[in-house]
Design goal:
CATH topology of the largest domain: Heat Shock Protein 90
Number of helices: 11
Radius of gyration: 54 Å
CATH superfamily of the largest domain: Histidine kinase-like ATPase, C-terminal domain
Structural class: alpha+beta
Number of strands: 14
Helix content: 40-55%
CATH class of the largest domain: Alpha Beta
Distance between the termini: 54 Å
Strand order of the largest sheet: 3-2-6-5-4
CATH architecture of the largest domain: 2-Layer Sandwich
Strand content: 15-25%
Length: 487
Amino acid sequence: MMKQRSIKNTFARHFASIMACSLLATLVTWGLLAMLLGYLFNHDIAFPANHYEAQIPVISEYAEARGDSVMGRQGQADLEKVIPSQGMSYLVVSLTGEPLYGDLPLNESLSRQKILARLNQTHKSMNQVVKYTPVVSGDGNLAGALLLGYNLKVTAANPALNPLVTIGSLIFVLTPFLYIILFTLIFGRRFSRQISTPLQQLLQGAEQIKERNLHFSMTGTSSITEVNRLTHAFEDMRQELEQSIEREWRLEQDRSTMFAALAHDLRTPLTIIQGHVEGLEQMNEESYEDKRSQYLQVIKRNTTRASKLLQDMNTIAEIEKVSFRLQPLPVDLEELADDKTMEYAALCGNQNIIFHTEINDNRLNKKPVLLDPYRIMQVLDNLVSNSIRYTPEAGLILWRIEITEEQVMMAVTDNGAGFGQQQDLQQVFKQFYQGDHHSSRQKGHSGLGLYIAKLLIQHHGGHISAENTPPRGATVRFTIPISSQEP
């Protein structure tokens, strides 16, 4: 597995590597250059920096031995035999500073005081070092001075090669900097590859997202922690975006399906209403009175059915809005149960069905529960109306309520036909799902009640499920957490 390091640590390691490699390469290069210079010095191809300085004692002894004869031009030829013709220049001056002969250029005028102050010393003049050597006459008096100019640097025996020596000296001085530049480029490219590959993948991914293509993955890895985090974050964003788009696509598909189902379900009652209205219009006076009541009941029933379907559609549209919010209030569940039990018992009495309520509060402090009572009643209305629809005459519907410190559980159980096959239990909370019951539409069942119940329970942070109740019947149960609620 590739070891991960931060950008700071990676940069520090690269910098240390650059300096270490540069130092090692510099030492090796300097060693090789030293060996080369040793060879050149030993074979008189090049002279060391102190080569001309080492000859000054001999020249000084010669000037001292010849005395004031050096001061005249007759001694020039003999003096130039002692002084090297290449690499050193000279100038003979009188004690007053007057130049007598020689090829050493001066950038200043000399005086007796300057000459006396600089005797037997070296002085920097232009780009050379100048040695002031005294010239003494035979009677022991100071006659003048011999100025010897030379450079303290490596030079070639052949003056034509001096530019090469200069270049070599410059390279010798610049070697550390050249190696630093070289290894910076080498390690910089390595560092760039560690970053550029995943960054390039990120750029390509951004371009694909721009082109609405999300079917790719960020598989590149880097040894740099921050780059890997960025890559993983981009991949998480891509996956989330892909899932979001897929959810949106499924939602759009569901909408299309929902509207198609709505149009289909509305067509039936509207067609029936239209047919019976036309039937009323075509009736003669004799049959009109006999069938009027029957036709009006059919028209009323199908009008109610269409109105209920549109009401459910409006409820779904409201709940699915992003801006939808519950309106929670402190609710006394026993009081709510008493009110709804009277209402449901009356509805069941019309169908000759028994309705019974059981409530069990296991809390020590029986305080009101915070929930949206209107929405919970909507859920209960849908569950009980479904049970009434499929419970046979003289059947039983049981509403159970259990309250603990953590949650509220409500269940509606009937002894009707149940949900049929196992696949029905997995589909009952989907839009427009009506199972295999042939009488569903005939009984006004549109398949939206349980879907609405699921949405509302989910908004409460709860869970809803359905199951068959042996030997016959069905149970729909939901739970709502109350552990963190403060009424």
